Amino acid sequence: MNLLWGILAIVLLLAWLLLYSQTSRRYPGAVKLQMDGIRLQKLAPPMLYVLERIQVSQRFPLFFFKIQRSVRQINGQQRGGEYTLLFLAEMLTYSYLLLIGGCLISIAMEGEASGFLIGFLLAVLLPVALISDLHSKVKRREQQILLELPELLNKIVLLVGAGSTVQQAIKHCLERKRGQESHPLYRELFQMQRECEGGYSFAQAMEGFSKRCGIQEVSAFTTAVLLNFRRGGSDFVMALRDLSHSLWEKRKAVGKTLGEQASSKLVFPMVLLFLIIVILVGTPAFLIMDL
């Protein structure tokens, strides 16, 4: 059986090396893309070629669209298709390497098929874990935006009420957040500011900001601004205050959810600590009873 697993491992490795030699220069742009969480980028060309051949976006449009939507929210709207293919190639590369690793484990276990089964199960479960992690990152990004948006809106309301225009109010808020450009909300706002300075109208820049965020609450914020900012005055301030009130309620709900998640994460350590205490206290008692 060792010979069988050895042959299978060699065949899989040679097939990958052959495909890599033919495709290593086929996707220079994708290999140079900077994407958070990608570790096997230089090994991606063979799986990019496989994805291209099977036309994954056409054969599995719903699956591809869901992954692409999440990838775009994390990495931006530009080149979203390339980022999605790179993420899928990363998944397939991990799975392929795990299959080879399963063969090697079977060889180390003197031909036992359980080693290959372990590799096969990991090859199936790891892509699921990567997709789940991607969706978790999107969820955390949405929570970060929802936690910060009401505070930003309050500042805009105060500045507009004091006589500033919306553009001036947003610019003033961003000047005080120069050190927080990594925050998802301010990153998109800085991008909106650069678009305005580059020749885009304020309405176009706001619409782009809303699309990049991809959150209903941000869409409500941009809609309220675009519908009322030209009129200004008390009506505009009242509209923003009403929106601010609803956003603060949303922030409270998000904060409550995060608090519940934090408390649930503490359950296992507390149970483990309780069991350790029971063992430490109970062991001497049992020893005394035996004596």
From TrEMBL:
Transmembrane helix is among the record's keywords: yes
InterPro entries: T2SS_GspF_dom
Any Pfam family hit: T2SSF
Compartments (UniProt record): Cell membrane
Type II secretion system protein GspF domain ranges (all copies): 153-284
Topology of this chain in the membrane: Multi-pass membrane protein
Chain segments annotated as transmembrane: 85-107, 113-131, 266-289
Keywords carried by this UniProt record: Cell membrane, Membrane, Transmembrane, Transmembrane helix
Main location: membrane
Protein name: Type II secretion system protein GspF domain-containing protein
